[in-house]
Write a structure and sequence with these properties.
Blueprint lengths: L1 E5 L9 E5 L3 E4 L7 H12 L6 E3 L5 H4 L2 H7 L4 E5 H6 L3 H17 L16 E3 L4 E4 L2 E7 L8 E5 L4 E3 L6 E3 L3 E3 L6 H12 L5 E4 L3 E4 H27 L4 H12 L4 H4 L2 H20 L2
Parallel strand pairs: 3-4, 4-5, 5-6, 10-13
Antiparallel strand pairs: 1-2, 2-3, 7-8, 8-9, 9-10, 11-12, 13-14
Helix pairs in contact: 6-7, 7-10, 8-10
Length: 288
């Protein structure tokens, strides 16, 4: 028996607390500027219990920046992430970018002055495909699902048929669209979607959304692959027609930066992601 609670403090900074009879885990840790509030939310559900571990699906600032605050609150907490993410957090340039993106998010939410922690964004236990992580009486198998980033990983609990998926599979824009999120590889994204689809999950925790049931999962993963291909074709076609990369990014913005994505993702973050997305698709798919 387990329960999952969204303890994130603001939209776009979702962090999910998983509690079972014998263990606790935080899946992703959100922005830095609202991490103290996230921890307060988690404490209410923990009801005196400690946080055992943090499972990071990848190293992006909106998923990992609350980690140092968790270490401060629970000094014995163990942080699991991909080995690649561990190396990311060891690079000064990456930490600088993470800080800049957090500062931008704080400004967007009207909280430019926030308590910063300059250390603690690190990985205790790097994991790779097939590794097993025990959270109390639940065992999660690590599944590498790169595409959004190189360090994206998902977690699969066979016994409970619970899938904790990375952002590589996109974000559902209801009712019919999926916002693509591939930044480092198109084919690896398609491979990741197919790898997760065959698991037969009955519950899935989707980044920035929450727990969904089997019917939603099956429809979403099918639509996800369709929209990844549509987006790739849109970029390749526009490139072949002679449009500039800036113009192509404008097409993506008109198509996807609308509705619930706007409060979910600061515009600067969307623009940065679309920059990498367009360059990657042209390099991988248009120039072959």
């Amino acid at each position: 028996m387990y329960e999952v609670f969204n303890v994130g403090a603001v939209r776009g900074s979702e962090a999910f607390l998983l509690i079972n009879d014998e263990g606790t885990a935080l899946i992703d840790s959100g922005f830095a500027f609202c991490a103290d509030e996230m921890i307060e939310n988690a404490e209410r559900y923990l009801n005196g219990r400690k946080l055992d571990c943090v499972l990071l699906t990848h190293s992006h600032y909106d998923h990992a920046s609350g980690t140092p605050y968790c270490r401060e609150k629970w000094p014995e907490v163990k942080v699991y992430a991909a080995a690649y993410a561990k190396r990311v957090f060891e690079r000064a340039g990456a930490l600088k970018t993470i800080r800049e993106m957090n500062d931008n998010a704080a400004a967007v939410f009207g909280r430019p002055e926030y308590r910063t922690l300059d250390s603690g964004l690190s990985v205790d236990i790097p994991v790779s495909d097939g590794d097993i992580i025990e959270v109390g009486n639940m065992k999660f198998r690590v599944i590498e699902t790169p595409g959004h980033t190189m360090d994206c990983i998902s977690f699969w609990c066979e016994e409970e048929k619970l899938l904790i998926s990375s952002e590589t599979i996109g974000y559902p824009l209801l009712p019919h669209k999926v916002s693509p999120t591939f930044l480092v590889g198109y084919q690896m994204t398609i491979d990741a979607i197919r790898k997760l689809r065959v698991l037969g999950a009955e519950k899935q925790l989707i980044s920035h959304l929450g727990i969904v049931d089997k019917a939603f999962i099956e429809e979403f993963l099918t639509k996800s692959e369709i929209w990844m291909e549509k987006t790739k074709d849109m970029i390749v076609t526009a490139h072949n027609e002679g449009k500039t990369n800036d113009e192509i990014r404008g097409l993506l913005k008109n198509e996807f930066y609308r509705g619930e994505i706007i409060p979910l993702q600061p515009e600067k973050a969307f623009d940065l992601n679309s920059y990498y997305m367009v360059n990657m698709i042209i390099r991988e798919c248009a120039e072959q």
